[in-house]
Predict the 3D structure of the following.
Amino acid sequence: MIDLFYWPTPNGHKITLFLEEAGLDYTIKPINIGKGEQFAPEFLKIAPNNRMPAIVDHAPTDGGEPISIFESGAILLYLAEKTGQFGGSDLRGRTDVTQWLMWQMGGLGPMLGQNHHFNRYAPEKIPYAIDRYVKETNRLYGVLDRRLEGRDFIAGDYSIADMAAYPWIVPYEAQGQRLEDFPNLKRWFETIAARPATIAAYEKGKAVNDSSVPMTDEAKKMLFGQSAAAR
């Protein structure tokens, strides 16, 4: 059994996508990031960066004590190794999956996250910042579109690289993008959206939190106003 410490954000969705695809038993432990639950001492023991998602695997393959993992990319790599699924079947396949997972972790996620912040959450509209991140989002969409030419998925077969990237493309309209401008990406996106595991994962997210409710000022302070100083 796996405990998943989760809130339905793009990084959170990555893990439910894997767990649903692999058919693993898991329990969602909601971490309401708008209420500051990510700063609870018991959660910080699992995720010292005070970010979700995180997991605790109560049945690791070595038969030892439960293992806790934070950072969505590390979790995906762990789960792929645990199950022997979605991580590549040989050295070259694993390398391909890993490098594109790192591309998402180091580029697609952070840059699109800044796009979201300056377009949707910043208290003042800063044209330079908005233009900067919308253009970088567009560039990264182009990288992914070119990668997907002649391929069903990012690394050939469906993998954790796809699970990592897909949730960040879901809010493409809010990012100032049109999927019609990226035909290979559009085909890939629609294929993943139709997978039963994707549908199940996003339904579980809706059950945890209604994303249509506007974020409160207090939640924004909780998410965007933190420093190293003790709260």
Summary: Residues 91-194 form a domain with the Glutathione S-transferase Yfyf (Class Pi); Chain A, domain 2 fold (CATH 1.20.1050.10). Strands lie at 2-6, 26-30, 54-57, 67-70. The mean pLDDT is 94.
